[in-house]
Predict the 3D structure of the following.
Amino acid sequence: MMMTKQRNVRGRGWGMTGARRGGAAKGCLIAAGVVVVLIVALVVTVMLTWKKMAGAAMTATTVAVVDSSSIPDDQKTRIKARVEGVVKDWKDGKVSGEQLGEVMKQIVESPVFPAAMAGLADKQYLSRSGLTDEEKAAGRRVLQRFARGVFEKKIPEAESQPVIALMQAKDMAGNEKFKETMTDDEVKAMLVKAKAAADKAEVPDEEFNVDFAGEIDRAIDRALAPTK
């Protein structure tokens, strides 16, 4: 139910394609350690269900998802505490539904989604491929450059979509979802397209690392800041 409702959330570029079209399977995302994608899905669930049920479900699911992710323990603690705090404030009437929607919007527009999807591509496909260690190292840098290009809007959606499409397949209902596995040739093709897009956008050959907990904190702070 959670991922189905997430389908209606719209965003841009790399980050929201999975959410817009049905998202990756829950198990696939957990295996990839991409906790932030599911956290935003949980926010959507809260917005669309009853407060009593949603609050309990979000708290339990957030703890389970964050604990099974591969991000540092200190970030896990911060993310869980902050998300649970927002949900509590919403249930208590301290945060409005409009503000909760703004929280989601701010998270979507932060570096969280591009970086999370780069992590998904790395852990779910690249790391499990038969490519050499050197090819994998080069591929990770390509994915980081691509994620940065999408976030900085240097890579337009028209050029990011073909890369994302290589990671997706349609299910029986015709919805796009991320593949459980990719062949080595598919991984190589994805990296070739991602590199071409990054090169065209002149994205620096540098690491693109994200403090997930910090970005979520800042996104929530922006969303809940008093209006002047």
Summary: The chain is about 70% helix and 5% strand. Residues 112-200 form one domain. The first helix runs from residue 2 to 6. Residues 1-12, 15-34, 44-50 have pLDDT under 50 and may be disordered.
